[in-house]
Amino acid sequence: MKKLIKRILWVLLIVVILLLGWYAWPRLPIITAFAAKGMCSSVFLADKTPDRVSQEDLSFFPISLAKCEIDYEEKSVTAKVLGLAKRKAIFREGLGAVILLEKAEDELMAQSFRLPDPGYSQDTIAWPLGDVLPDTLPEGVDYDKLHSILQEALDDPGKEPFKKTLGVAVVYKDALIGENYLGGYDAWTKFHGWSMTKSVTGAMAGALVKEGRMDIRGTTGLPEWQGDERKHITIEHILHMSSGLEWVENYFTISEATVMLMQSDDMFSSVTSCPLEHGPGSIWNYSSGDANLLSGLLRRAIGNEKEYLGYPYTRLFHRIGMLNTVVETDASGLFVASSYSYGSTRYWALFGLLFLNNGIFEGDTVLHPGWVDYMRTPAPASEGKNAATF
Q: Which of 46, 112, 128, 230 has the CB geometry, 3.0–4.6 Å to 225, for a possible disulfide?
């Protein structure tokens, strides 16, 4: 009887191991890709220390299982889980970090882009376009209470992270009236913008519309969609996150989102290959795929690679003082418009200020006020719950 029980236990153990392997093995490359990419961007683009990246950006399960090795000379990061599922990310000047997948490593290493010169220095220009802050602050604010709130927003030094806030900036009547940062960070520290990048993409679309270079009411015109119902998807459907494409936004398993971000050299093609699940415009579905689909359509509308890579800087960031901001591309040169931007808290506040002032920044009409209203208006298929453009 004891031998039988022992055999049964061994069989059960083997079954459990096989099941764990069946479930975990396909997911390990996603874990290591996420870790390698996150560490590479944070170290070489945001200038964060590896320890802080591990504590603040990669500390959640299962990403915390990955161990990263950094090559400072090569500017690359390799991640593994228990020595398995190796993934490597490479940093490219002006383009950010990218995961090494199908494209040759030397080809990725050779990629770079010289960010456009803004033509001015913020050191000598008054806020909000520059960094020179006024000697006096607006009246009507309880600054003692504001200071208390700014302090309470951050975890106390030496305490177990709970709030995990890295930086806070407060703007009132177009003035920066308060900011606070976790130890060692400051107004120029770049943080991962994640889905705030979607709003940048929406603004870029609005700029092209203002220039008469994009008609959002028109269909995408993608050749690969002309043989099926996807040919009816309009740019506006995509702006509304109502394209109808099959899409699951889940980062803890194998989904369209993780396949696109962690397993694709060409994220635009990854999305265009998705089948239609719902009629275009009928269902609202939060989709990073729609954001990167829009990024590819912006690229086509611009029609010039150098202009496309410089567009968010010359058309948007430089005009509102967001000089400490970078949007990363995938291996194909596509802006990862869903997720991969890095910028400092103070300059994200400028982006908010642009929208607060209806697209006008210091007298410069960066975005048409009508487009700002459009971005604030709930998408029709969302039943009044979600803004039209990201």
A: 230
Amino acid sitting at position 331: A
Spatial separation of the C-alpha atoms in residues 251 and 259, rounded to whole Å: 10
- The pLDDT confidence band at residue 7, using thresholds 50, 70 and 90, is low
Q: What is the pLDDT of residues 186-243, one digit of tens each?
A: 999 999 999 999 999 999 999 999 999 999 999 999 999 999 999 999 999 999 999 9
| Other Cβ atoms closer than 10 A to 173 | 10
- Give the three-state DSSP class for 92: strand
Quick one: DSSP state of residue 102?
A: S
CA of 55: how far to CAs of 19, 36, 85, 264, 346, in Å?
30, 14, 22, 27, 23
Phi, psi torsion values for 346, nearest 5 degrees: -60, -40
Alpha carbons 271 and 294: distance in angstroms, whole number: 10
DSSP sequence for 32-75: HHHHHHHHHHHHHTS---HHHHHHHTS-STTGGG-EEEEETTTT
Is residue 182 within 8 A of residue 166, CB to CB? The reply is yes
**CA-CA-CA-CA torsion for 79, 183, 342, 99, nearest 10 degrees?**
0
pLDDT of residue 118: 97
Tell me the pTM: 0.92
Cα–Cα dist 188/322, whole Å = 11
Residue of 279, 285, 302, 297 lying closest to 233 (CA atoms): 279
Amino acid present at 324? N
CA distances from 388 to 194, 203, 234 (A): 18, 12, 14
In 3D, which of 42, 131, 129, 124 has the Cα closest to residue 79?
A: 42
User: Would the CA dihedral through 361, 366, 369, 371 be positive or negative?
Assistant: negative
Residue type, 256: E
Helix (H) or strand (E) holding 344: strand 341-344
